[in-house]
């Protein structure tokens, strides 16, 4: 199975490609350069830019274009619509402050994990991804925590649709091995990632199952192996992650 649409709308794909190219660009981009990046004619690029500009997603500066902040507004409104976000956000900030490490809240989006919020203390590890970005589930602790919250048939379906790519030599790419790890996570209530997404980076996460209707969420901490190891990782950090998830559940139940 794949996520490819049966009847893809080429014009929509082109508009999305143009918008993403503008977001990725270091500065404003001209029509000719943008057409080359996306692989369309100059006239096609101009038509899409004009449409996106009229809708408020693109800003024109002289003869160049750049992405507007309107997608940010959509993301913020979507996030505010998550019933658990406000309660979890404060707890997430507290967790980052208490551990001195980066903490993140993830939700399940189809076959990927999307960070809802990321809290980075001053001396914490800066993650190379952004809130809202879709990430593979099998490579990080929050993703594996999300998978562990799902019934076996849903996990099997997701794994069938997912290419288990290996960003590092430590990444688990064997479905049977991953399934066995998910079983252990369900038993222990905690997920670990040991250099499976980024070399030298350790993660620990716990699921926040069914915190908002059909939404599945997970909360975790990640940082360099030089700091996150041994008893400090297994007991202190793990304990704080579990305690924080329980506090969020209590806050949601009492509202």
Task: Describe the fold and architecture.
The strands form two sheets. Strands 6-5-4-9-8-7 form a six-stranded antiparallel β-sheet, sandwiched between helices. A three-stranded antiparallel β-sheet has the order 1-3-2. The protein is built from nine helices and nine strands. The radius of gyration is 20 Å and the shape is globular. It is α+β, with helices and mostly antiparallel strands. The model has no long low-confidence stretch (mean pLDDT 92). The chain has two domains: 10-68, Winged helix-like DNA-binding domain superfamily/Winged helix DNA-binding domain (Arc Repressor Mutant, subunit A, Orthogonal Bundle); 80-254, GAF domain (Beta-Lactamase, 2-Layer Sandwich), CATH 3.30.450. The two termini are 40 Å apart.
Features:
six-stranded antiparallel β-sheet, Beta-Lactamase, single chain, 255 residues, Arc Repressor Mutant, subunit A
